[in-house]
Design goal:
Blueprint lengths: L16 H17 L2 H18 L8 H8 L11 H20 L26 H9 L5 H16 L3 H5 L6 E4 L2 E7 L5 E5 L2 H13 L24 H14 L9 H12 L4 H7 L5 H11 L7 H7 L4
């Protein structure tokens, strides 16, 4: 196995059995996780591991995995406990897959002790901090779009990619409410109410760019930017970091708004179970069942959160 590609090209007749197994493992991982970045990271680790080792997976020992997981990387720095844990988890996941496929009978990672990792402190902005953040966003077309993006992330609790991928055709009306359809982690699809302040902010931003939801093509992005695909994740991240700095708030990425959504829901009196369901945090079976029940479900709590951050 080589280390020249982030994800191996689709195998051909010259590929070895283990290269085919690696491709199949990564394809299954992408289907289950729905995250290309996760697959790329795992692929790089596996190719680095087997490339350095120079042996086939059925010859790998626990000592081999231990030495690689705790070894220094290209910068020459000692790996953190998080890095060691991620390396072992990636290799272990691959071996569980090939055991399931009948290629090997044992997982060399089973004998390894995983490093203890102190959980990161919970993050999330308070209602006061969200108000401060919104106050520094300018009322320019780009600013109105960014404000709409922040409000949508805070009021829906969806992941950044799920929101940035929203298109005009994902919106629908039912009984006076606006709903949005999204593709969640692992390819799961859901349909939920789009809180009124978020919808109104999106509509206002689109008008500033000379567009309206009613006249947009179904595949047009709700987040105008350069090109037809709308603002990129990188641009949204950099602009958000700038707003945090202007508001004198701790630096962070857009994902902090998902934590913020959970925090504000909890502060509004929702149970932990309700917040977990709101964020789709559960086992795959439970989440799938929940999403089926959730189809078209109204969202009675967004108005409470909206009032917390100064919206009518």
């Amino acid at each position: 196995m080589t280390t020249t590609r982030a994800i191996p090209a689709r195998f051909d007749d010259s590929a070895s059995g283990w290269e085919r197994a690696l491709y199949a493992f990564l394809a299954e991982k992408e289907r289950r996780s729905g995250s290309l970045r996760t697959v790329q990271s795992c692929s790089r680790m596996l190719q680095d591991f087997f490339g350095r080792l120079g042996r086939q997976p059925d010859d790998v020992t626990s000592q081999d995995v231990f030495a690689w997981a705790h070894g220094t990387g290209l910068p020459g720095r000692e790996p953190s406990a998080v890095t060691v844990g991620a390396r072992i988890a990636c290799v272990s996941s691959f071996f569980r897959f090939v055991i399931r496929m009948g290629s090997v009978t044992a997982n060399p990672c089973d004998a390894l002790e995983r490093p203890r990792i102190a959980p990161a402190p919970p993050r999330g902005l308070s209602a006061e901090q969200v108000r401060a953040l919104l106050a520094v966003i300018p009322e320019t077309p780009a600013g109105l779009r960014d404000r709409a993006l922040v409000l949508t992330l805070v009021l829906t609790g969806r992941r950044r990619a799920e929101v940035l991928s929203l298109r005009a055709g994902d919106l629908s009306r039912d009984d006076g409410r606006v709903f949005y359809t999204y593709r969640g982690k692992g390819g799961k699809r859901g349909r939920r109410e789009l809180p009124r302040p978020a919808y109104e902010a999106i509509a206002q931003a689109l008008v500033a760019f000379g567009r309206s939801i009613a006249s947009m093509a179904p595949n047009e992005s709700l987040w105008p930017g350069v090109g037809s695909d709308g603002i990129t994740g990188g641009t949204a991240y950099l602009r958000f970091r700038g707003y945090l700095q202007a508001a004198d708030l701790p630096p962070g990425g857009l994902h902090v708004l998902r934590h913020t959504a959970a925090k504000l829901r909890r502060d509004a009196g929702e149970t932990v179970e309700a917040v977990s369901a709101f964020l789709d945090h559960s086992s795959l079976d439970v989440t799938t069942t929940y999403l089926r029940r959730l189809e078209g479900q109204t969202d009675p709590s967004w108005s409470v959160v909206a009032r917390q951050i100064g919206l009518s």
